Amino acid sequence: MKRIFLFSLLALGHVLCCAQVVLKGKVVEKESGSLLSGVSITIGGESVISGESGNFQFRLKEISGLVVEVSDVEHRMIRDSLSKFVRVTSNHEAEAIFYLERKNLFLQPVEVLATRSGTNAPFTKTNLSRKDIEKSNLGADLPFLLNQTPATIINSDAGNGIGYTGLRIRGSDLSRINVTLNGVPYNDPESQGVFFVDMPDVASSVNSIQIQRGVGTSSNGAGAFGATLNISTNEFYETPYAEVNNSYGSFNS
Predict the structure, then answer these.
(1) Counted domains in the chain
(2) Residue 115 maps to a domain
(3) Are 241 and 235 in contact (CB under 8 A)?
(4) Rounded to whole angstroms, how far apart are CA atoms 37 and 29?
(5) Whether residue 170 sits in one domain with residue 67
(6) DSSP string of 9-48?
(7) pLDDT tens for residues 115-139?
(8) Per-residue pLDDT tens for 228-253?
């Protein structure tokens, strides 16, 4: 009797397993044809998330009469009869492909690869290399290194270039000059001014400077009106080195 019961149980399990349909598929973006990962697919109350290759898999007892819902934050949701998307490949296997339309509500990620104007850009500019900076770097603030660039006027409260210093480019003061340090805006958020006294001897770490006079490119808000002062300290040295700078001036400077 036990043998008959076990045999009947195994036979019933085999029938139930055979009655299942394995549904495999993938989710594709309609516009680009790229496979979409992280998309939620719900069929008959069961939900799965598409993998890195946009693929998914279900085990269903039947195909007909079921409703499928495919949703993603950046795409329009699909909610329709499952049989419209399914193609039966064998007695117990089927496949489906869902094409999602992109919403126009989200901006695509933008990676900024450069914050300076190139050689062919239609802007009036001056590039200062590290060698150019070293020639005039005697410990004074950064505006005094730009003294010999066109249309630039500098000033110093103490008269020696140390302390509160400023500059004007084409008549515009520092509140109208967009100053960036390695692409990060340095203008004060309240007054829009720039206080180089907070960066003592920054010139010793500067590798290059680009000055754009007049309207030009900018990573700080809108396009620069007076000028753009782009400072870079990102140079990398593969070999160890040592550097000593000494200078002495009036008033113990």
Answers:
(1) 2
(2) no
(3) no
(4) 10
(5) no
(6) HHHHHHHHHHH-EEEEEEEEETTT--B--S-EEEETTEEE
(7) 677 777 777 888 988 888 888 887 7
(8) 888 888 777 778 888 777 777 777 76
